[in-house]
């Protein structure tokens, strides 16, 4: 989500890989010039010479040599004939496909799903340490793979139907960037849905399978016409809060207890994390539209951010999260038999202070797009942090 001296820009290439280029430049400086039919300036000749350079793309200083991976100033992507001849097209194609598929999965959502499932499983095992066996480890891994598949289906189907919006809001996504075809995207989402359903139905029984299907259904109507409920703020918030808040936490905890041979029973920490994360998912649903206001307005997608403004939504999301943290501290103080007060109180106080500081930074930056994106990333980091401390509370 290194520059040479600015006063005297110079072209440089890494040693060894581009020695032919350096020798050529030295000869041009030391030998008398001979008549040459070309009268183009050196920058034009360099940019049009396929044997020495791939491209010159102006002021983008972060370009890399395709063969050696070294950064080159002023976006000169220098590659000698020997380097180009030694590269493997098959390896390059596989690497690019892997990168596109990884971006297609939206890694920040995978981290949230993985951390949530691991934390809930760990909590159930901590509560029943005498029932732990190695078979549970395999089943837990299968459940994690199924959840990642479900996550991939939901974020993938959203990208397929949001190509135009993503070209404005998220041009780095693989379909919008042209790195992944729509046909390949459809293959991936159908594979994720089928694989996830098979894993769940073989390992976790009809009830968990029905919850899994409900999650896929909600993810579908969120993005796919004619429903496309993401157009309606309240419906969109409820879907995200239900899938990422209630279904994930309740479903994983229920499945883990069932695998241990136990009937479902709420514990205070699990009830807390389910309520906490459901409200947190609501905040994510609200604030996720902050960086996307430009594209949403262009494609007439109605969100609270487009209606109320970025500043008001940032304050609303911050206020809801602060209420979440205050409730966590109060619960720890008044229910010491259910929670570890020495962990719950200081950690949530620190999280709340960090949130206030980030909201202040956003205000000072005057709500630029970069500052909004940083604020949104920080909210996801708080989401991860809550699951990290959950097994300890």
TrEMBL record:
It is found in: Membrane; Plastid, Chloroplast. One of its GO terms (molecular function) is prenyltransferase activity. One of its GO terms (biological process) is vitamin E biosynthetic process. It comes from Ananas comosus. GO terms for cellular component: chloroplast; membrane. Pfam families: UbiA. NCBIfam families: PRK12887.1. It is a multi-pass membrane protein. Residues 31-58 are annotated as: Disordered. Belongs to the UbiA prenyltransferase family. The chain crosses the membrane at residues 132-154, 175-198, 204-222, 234-254, 266-287, 308-337, 343-362, 374-392. This is Probable homogentisate phytyltransferase 2, chloroplastic isoform X1. Pathway: Cofactor biosynthesis; tocopherol biosynthesis. Gene3D superfamilies: UbiA prenyltransferase. Residues 41-57 have a biased composition (Low complexity). InterPro entries: AtHST-like (IPR044502), UbiA_prenyltransferase (IPR000537), UbiA_sf (IPR044878). Keywords: Chloroplast, Membrane, Plastid, Transferase, Transit peptide, Transmembrane, Transmembrane helix.
């Amino acid at each position: 989500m290194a520059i040479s001296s600015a006063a005297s820009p110079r072209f440089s290439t890494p040693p060894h890989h581009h020695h032919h280029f350096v020798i050529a430049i030295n000869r041009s400086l030391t030998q008398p010039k001979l008549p040459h039919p070309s009268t183009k300036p050196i920058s034009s000749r360099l940019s049009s010479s396929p044997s020495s350079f791939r491209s010159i793309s102006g002021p983008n200083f972060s370009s890399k040599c395709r063969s050696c991976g070294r950064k080159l100033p002023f976006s000169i992507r220098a590659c000698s004939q020997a380097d180009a001849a030694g590269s493997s097209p098959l390896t390059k194609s596989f690497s690019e496909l892997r990168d596109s598929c990884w971006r297609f999965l939206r890694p920040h959502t995978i981290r949230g799903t993985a951390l949530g499932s691991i934390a809930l499983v760990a909590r159930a095992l901590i509560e029943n340490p005498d029932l732990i066996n190695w078979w549970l480890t395999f089943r837990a891994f299968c459940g994690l793979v199924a959840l990642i598949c479900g996550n991939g289906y939901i974020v993938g189907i959203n990208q397929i139907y949001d190509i135009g919006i993503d070209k404005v809001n998220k041009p780095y996504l693989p379909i919008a960037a042209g790195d992944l075809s729509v046909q390949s995207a459809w293959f991936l989402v159908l594979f994720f849905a089928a694989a996830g359903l098979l894993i769940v139905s073989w390992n976790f029984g009809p009830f968990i399978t029905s919850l899994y299907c409900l999650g896929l259904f909600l993810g579908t109507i969120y993005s796919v016409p004619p429903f496309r409920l993401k157009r309606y703020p309240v419906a969109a918030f409820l879907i995200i809060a239900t899938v990422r808040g209630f279904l994930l936490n309740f479903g994983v905890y229920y499945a883990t207890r069932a695998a241990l041979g136990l009937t479902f029973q709420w514990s205070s920490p699990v009830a807390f994390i389910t309520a906490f994360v459901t409200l947190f998912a609501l905040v994510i649903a609200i604030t996720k539209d902050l960086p996307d206001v430009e594209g949403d307005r262009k494609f007439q997608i109605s969100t609270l951010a487009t209606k109320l403004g970025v500043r008001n939504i940032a304050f609303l999301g911050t206020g809801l999260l602060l209420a979440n943290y205050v409730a966590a501290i109060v619960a720890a103080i008044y229910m010491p038999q259910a929670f570890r007060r020495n962990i719950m109180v200081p950690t949530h106080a620190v999280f709340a202070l960090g949130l206030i500081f980030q909201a202040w930074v956003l205000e000072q930056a005057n709500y630029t797009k970069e500052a909004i994106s940083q604020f949104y990333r920080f909210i996801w980091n708080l989401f991860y942090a809550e699951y990290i401390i959950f097994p300890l509370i």
